[in-house]
UniProtKB/TrEMBL annotation:
<dbReference type="InterPro" id="IPR012338">
    <property type="entry name" value="Beta-lactam/transpept-like"/>
</dbReference>
<keyword id="KW-0378">Hydrolase</keyword>
<dbReference type="InterPro" id="IPR005543">
    <property type="entry name" value="PASTA_dom"/>
</dbReference>
<dbReference type="GO" id="GO:0004180">
    <property type="term" value="F:carboxypeptidase activity"/>
</dbReference>
<protein>
    <submittedName>
        <fullName>PASTA domain-containing protein</fullName>
    </submittedName>
</protein>
<dbReference type="Pfam" id="PF03717">
    <property type="entry name" value="PBP_dimer"/>
</dbReference>
<keyword id="KW-0645">Protease</keyword>
<dbReference type="GO" id="GO:0071555">
    <property type="term" value="P:cell wall organization"/>
</dbReference>
<dbReference type="GO" id="GO:0008658">
    <property type="term" value="F:penicillin binding"/>
</dbReference>
<dbReference type="InterPro" id="IPR005311">
    <property type="entry name" value="PBP_dimer"/>
</dbReference>
<dbReference type="Pfam" id="PF00905">
    <property type="entry name" value="Transpeptidase"/>
</dbReference>
<keyword id="KW-0121">Carboxypeptidase</keyword>
<feature type="domain" description="PASTA">
    <location>
        <begin position="610"/>
        <end position="671"/>
    </location>
</feature>
<keyword id="KW-0472">Membrane</keyword>
<dbReference type="GO" id="GO:0005886">
    <property type="term" value="C:plasma membrane"/>
</dbReference>
<dbReference type="InterPro" id="IPR036138">
    <property type="entry name" value="PBP_dimer_sf"/>
</dbReference>
<dbReference type="InterPro" id="IPR001460">
    <property type="entry name" value="PCN-bd_Tpept"/>
</dbReference>
Length: 673
């Protein structure tokens, strides 16, 4: 008999075996299809991403910082430069003993061991030991022979002139970004463009090779050339430091400006600081007070009040004002003079610096015209020096009589030192206000000029005749009887004005017993080449500008005239003759008696020096017809230059001036109305 049960069992096993094979085949086919699809996806759609990941295993993009552009003075002397120095880094994972290595590294680079250990302990593969290290520190670290050390070049800002001009140039931070001064104002131009390049690295991340060489010009910022003169800047800073020390003051400012162009030749501040080591400086010494801070200028403003009144014909050079013998009551207030005075002309007002008579001149001028005149001279508007934080000052409208009086002698208003110097530059430049500027040119490495400043005439403030009249009046300030005889020079005529201003007390909302002493002058007075302003903040030995600031002016002016090769032109009278302008004058009995003999004529007649060979004195041709004046000048071996027609109303150089033969004499002619 056949065993049917045994015969059916193999057939069932074969069927299940075939099914299992089919299932496994389908599974493997699915897995193969999935792998193929994944491969296609990665190779086709993720190709760029994977290539980048692969390259990142051995290629690194390295940032190459740009070399910061240089800053020069007007003669090409570098004030700020960038040099390549070593920065030290380490791979902490390669150090056998991190704490021991931290102590050794800290000692070599003069850092706190705990700080170095903390930084190395937090990092895995990279940590800075010290950036921009000194050469001797780099040598000391290399001598340790520690594994994992690395050295890379970084640009470091260097200031070869140290403290000289530091407030103007400013400084940069450790990251190379400007923090103060021109370094901050011209950050974009100076910084240049950082470069990126590819470098290979090994499995531990160490750089092996950098691809290609970079053009150094592509990594360099633009060069900035200033109007500053290094020599005059040095002289100004030295004289200012002496003035501040002698007066036991807290600070000082000095400005030297070319009135013909508006160029700032020097801009000094005290106390000073070294931008190479700013952390060693005095607190608040970094601020550029001369360009940024506003203060109440005091009596230096009187010259502009007199000039505006003369321009508007509210007064004449022969007008007389009664100075109330030293005290003048205005409502509940009393205006005082340092010394009592009687009747004074405008020249006498400036010579003895009478607050009372300056207030009376402002009263004759009027509120609207006084404010307009101050604005015309450039006050209450920024000069545009391209320095961040420059103040504009303020000229509040004087609503009361006492406000009008105080603003006439520079209280109750504010100005910056540069504004004040530029305003005196307008008087020195025959009444034309020039825009003061500090940056001459900005040029990129390819020679393309990004910025170039030229002398810019802003506006005519007063007529040439009025400007010369006021400058002539200011000459009486520096002679005996004036407020600043210490500013007088042996070989040059000087015109200037002193200022002694009370400092406002913001807490008490009034004025304190602290003072700001100043002197603003121009030299030579007959054709000014330099306007020099010296300000001493809170002097303690003496508070008057004629004693505190005027000697510093003289020191700066003496060096400036020699440096600028200005020929001597001394034509002033003995001090006792010039002092007559400030002597009390009785009230005029009639219009005719009110006319005094011009002080200028008296000064010219008092000059009795013997001319040197090759020189000649300028004859007096004022009031003469143009033809007669030309004949007289030609006979004196001088070259006449005429402006206008009619009779001579002014001449430059003035009568009596000692000049070289063949010198040009400019005559201003006008037809009498």
């Amino acid at each position: 008999m056949r065993d049917f049960k045994g015969a059916r069992a193999p057939e069932s096993n074969a069927k299940w075996l075939k099914l299992r094979v089919q299932l496994l085949f389908g599974l493997f086919l699915t897995l193969l299809g999935t792998a193929f699809a994944r491969a296609v996806y990665l190779q086709v759609f993720q190709q760029e991403k994977l290539r980048g990941l692969a390259q990142d295993q051995y290629v690194r993009q390295i940032d190459i910082p740009a070399r910061r552009g240089d800053i020069f003075d007007r003669r090409g002397t570098p004030l700020a430069q960038s040099v390549e120095v070593d920065s030290i880094w380490v791979d902490p994972s390669l150090l056998p003993d991190v704490r021991q290595a931290s102590r050794l590294l800290a000692k070599a680079v003069h850092l706190d061991p705990n700080d170095v250990a903390s930084r190395l302990g937090r990092a895995k593969r990279f940590a800075w030991v010290k950036r921009q290290a000194k050469p001797q520190e780099v040598a000391a670290v290399k001598a340790l022979g520690l594994p994992g050390l690395g050295f890379t070049k970084e640009p470091k800002r260097f200031y070869p002139q140290r403290e000289l001009g530091a407030h103007i140039v400013g400084m940069v931070g450790r990251d190379g970004h400007g923090l103060e001064g021109l370094e901050l104002a011209f950050q974009d131009e100076l910084s240049g463009q950082n470069a990126r390049t590819s470098g290979f690295r090994d499995a531990k991340g160490r750089k092996l090779m950098v691809q290609g060489a970079l053009d150094p010009l592509e990594r360099q910022g633009a060069a900035v050339t200033l109007t500053l003169d290094r020599h005059l800047q040095y002289v100004a800073e030295k004289a200012l430091a002496k003035a501040v020390d002698d007066a036991k003051a807290i600070a000082g400012m000095a400005v030297v400006l070319d009135p013909r162009t508006g160029e700032l030749l020097a801009l000094a501040n005290n106390p000073r600081f070294n931008p190479n080591t700013p952390e060693d400086g005095v607190k608040n010494a970094i601020r550029n007070r001369a360009a940024l801070d506003a203060f109440e200028p005091g009596s230096t403003m009187k010259a502009f009040v007199v000039a505006a009144a003369l321009e508007q014909k509210n007064i004449t050079p022969d007008s007389l004002f009664f100075c109330e013998n030293g005290a003048w009551r205005i409502g509940r207030h009393t205006v005082n003079d340092t010394h009592p005075h009687g009747w004074l002309t405008p020249e006498g007002i400036l010579q003895v610096s009478s607050n009372i008579c300056a207030a009376k001149v402002a009263e004759a001028l009027g509120r609207e015209k006084l404010v307009a005149a101050y604005h015309a001279f450039g006050f209450a508007e920024r000069t545009g020096l391209a320095l961040t934080g420059e103040s504009r000052g303020s000229i509040p409208f004087p609503k009361s009589d006492i406000s009008l009086a105080t603003q006439s002698f520079g209280q109750g208003m504010t100005s910056t030192a540069v504004q004040l110097a530029a305003a005196y530059g307008a008087l020195a430049n025959d009444g034309v206000l020039m825009r003061p500027y500090l940056v001459s040119r900005v040029v990129d490495p390819d020679g393309v000029v990004l910025l170039e400043n030229q002398p810019t005439e802003l506006r005519r403030v007063v007529s040439p005749r009025v400007a010369r009249q006021v400058v002539g009046m200011l000459e009486s300030v520096v002679v005996k009887g004036g407020t600043a005889p210490k500013a007088a020079m042996e070989d040059y005529r000087v015109a200037g004005k002193t200022g002694t201003a009370q400092k406002a007390d913001p807490v008490a909302r009034g004025y304190s017993d602290k003072r700001i002493a100043s002197f603003a002058g121009m030299v030579p007075a007959e054709a000014p080449r330099a306007v020099i302003l010296v300000i001493v903040d809170e002097p303690k030995t003496d508070v008057y500008g004629g004693n505190v600031a005027a000697p510093a002016f003289k020191e700066i002016a003496t060096a400036a005239m020699a440096h600028l090769a200005v020929p001597p032109s001394r034509t002033v009278a003995p001090a006792e003759v010039a002092a007559a302008a400030a002597s009390p004058v009785p009230p005029p009995a009639s219009k005719a008696s009110a006319k005094a003999v011009p002080v200028r004529a008296a000064l010219a007649e008092a000059v009795t020096e013997t001319p040197e060979p090759g020189t000649v004195r300028v004859p007096d041709v004022q009031g003469q017809a143009g033809r007669e004046a030309v004949v007289k000048l030609l006979a004196a071996a001088l070259e006449p230059q005429l402006q206008g027609s009619g009779r001579v109303v002014s001449q430059t150089p003035p009568a009596g001036a000692l000049v070289e033969k063949g010198a040009r004499v400019t005559l201003e002619l006008a037809t009498r109305q």
